[in-house]
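Chapter review: from sequence to fold.
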Amino acid sequence: MRQLIAKEITSAFDRKIIRNDRLTHFSISEPPYLSGELRTSLESLSLVSRRCVYFALLMGITIDQASSLTWNEVKQMRESGLMVDQDAALDVLDQLPRHFRSPLVFWEMSSQNQPVSLIGLRAEVETIFCMTYDELMEKFQTMLFVDPSIHADELRQIWRAN
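The token string follows.
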């Protein structure tokens, strides 16, 4: 199914039925990794962990870097221009609550009711995704933004255009 979707999207792009600048220098992994698969796996994580992993993938950083990120570092990244073209990453940050006693961007409450960094997130991600984080990052970089459960009608229209 995934290979069929990838081939149909590539064919539609080649025939100029769809236009997407991201596809211009894009190579599809074998088998193709779909955004629907990413969404399904991310939903297995807590909300803050999900946001942290997605932010890390968008920014091309490790989970450890993202989970220890502080608001001052975010400010420096914005000022230096590292986040200028990262609209999706900025959207993630805009959705985050800030804790008045913690500089951490991604945090959860400990059993002592204190904000702490996300401990063990990398291992949890690797278990849920059944791959290393480096493999996930590679798949994310060549991922097809297709979620069959959401885009089924759009795909039917592309297939009918043949």
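Two observations follow directly from the output. Residues 33-142 form one domain. The radius of gyration is 18 Å.
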